[in-house]
Amino acid sequence: MRDPAETPSRHRPDAGGVVVSLPIADAEATTGWPHRHLLDVDQLTRAELEQCLDLAVEMRELRNRRETLSTLRGEVVGLAFCEPSTRTRVSFELAATALGAQVVDLPIEASSVAKGESLVDTLRALERTGISTIVLRHPMGGAPYLAARSVGARIVNAGDGAHAHPTQALLDALTLREALGPLDGKKIAIVGDIGHSRVARSNMHSLTALGASVWLAGPTDWVHGFDDWPGVTVAHSLEDALADADAVVALRIQLEREAGGEMRSLRDYTTQWGLDEGRMELARPGTPLLHPGPTNEGVEITAELATSSRSLIGTQVANGVPIRMAVLSLLAR
Ligand code: CP
After folding, report:
1. Which residues form the domain of 213?
2. Are 68 and 134 within one domain?
3. Is the CB of 233 under 6 A from ligand 1?
4. Residue 88 Cβ contacting ligand 1 at under 6 Å
5. What does the alpha-carbon distance between residue 235 and residue 222 come to, in Å, rounded to a whole number?
């Protein structure tokens, strides 16, 4: 066990808590982290993606042993969610708390935004209260980039419009790496409402950076414009996308982004693109299924598939906390 006095201060255990012994692999002891914000995964090199996933594994082990860290002791993390969220918001709160931070929730409908205050003015006010990290979910693509240019606090993108959802991509990569091993040469099919999906865009960056080939399948309008992404193939049919796939990621039909208006009907969508056990047989035997959630059961996937033994949906949610612990602690370096 490492002498706590030699442990980097942000990883010292809480007073009265369990002395935390960090594995040798803990990168904090040897290297820093060059990024102040996490706006999307396209800002990360392959080595940085892997560093984040490796640190998340360490964080999960510490959390499983109910050990607490003081990485963010004395810091305040603000959760500014301007769109609904269950998984992301709760796991950021748990992650920040597990790292010793105080967490302030900003229910946007109860904030001065409701009185017409701009996003930037709201975030500046938050910063003046001593908040050092702002976790921002916003319906406008690019809002976290504006925030990062406007305030001194660290900004973590918790999902901006249809643009990016970097921590979802990181937890998906961790889930896939643990299910499949190294992702080099693996075929990952992403099926559904790709055009409106920040998850799909971030996954395209991270999965291809980690060596996978990504195949997209969905209605023509929703896969338009992705042909020239490096490492990404737009499939001509669901069958082409699923053939020999090592994993399948189903996406939610985003009715709030008017996805429903572009479809003749959800029933048509389900008939053509919906996933069930029968269609999953087109992929490799036992191929795992992921979905970022929340699911529209009976639309993009059946309830049976969502709860089947091949479903990693619960694992994705569980991996959200250690991934967000890793992100928050890396940004604090
Ligand atoms: N996957 C995801 O972002 O879920 P929430 O909207 O519940 O946070």
Report:
1. 167-316
2. yes
3. no
4. yes
5. 12
Other beta carbons within 10 Å of 109: 7
Ligand 1 in contact with 45 (CB < 6 A)? Answer: no
Q: Express as a percent the part of the chain with pLDDT over 90.
A: 78
Percent of the chain with pLDDT over 70: 88
Give yes or no for a contact between 216 and 273, defined as CB atoms under 8 angstroms apart: no
117-144 pLDDT per residue, tens: 898 999 999 899 999 999 999 999 999 9
CA distance 289 to 105: 32
pLDDT, mean of residues 223-232: 93
* Whether 68 and 173 share a structural domain: no
Q: How many domains does the chain have?
A: 2
Q: What is the pTM of this model?
A: 0.89
CATH number at residue 99: 3.40.50.1370
Same-domain status, 195 and 133: no
- Which residue, 170, 141, 201, is CA-closest to 319? 170
